[in-house]
Amino acid sequence: MKRIGLVLFCVVVLLLAGCASRQSGDIYSRHQVQRQLSVYYGTVLVVDPVMIEGTQTGLGTMAGGVVGGIAGHTVGGGHGQALATAVGVIGGALVGAAMEEGGTRRNGLEITVELDSGEVIAVVQEADDLYAVGDRVRILRGPGGVTRVRQ
Asked: Of residues 139 and 11, which shows the higher confidence score?
């Protein structure tokens, strides 16, 4: 039983790692490819670090509940075992949900840019590039309002 729980835990960790969606300025989803983007130029006014929350697909909750239920089921016997299984399922689900959200959380930047037109905008994206006040940047706006800052 312990081996099964360990295997399920490893599967959960691998699945959660694969669910991490990226909010990077240089990563495009499939539906964003071959779409027209409007290009604007501007100057960076402010760069603030932010945290981009993780995803909650429910996979972490479900997998944590399974692992917790298996672990709880190995404790005691009779009514005590049923209670331990129920507590294991609930506790595992809570831990699994927290692990999923925490494991997919990303560092981000809120980049405030004054466009050459005079308009001031702010864009939040993953902190995978360095931006400093005064940098000249390109702003790419796509259909559906997706906007990204590029150097």
From this structure: 139
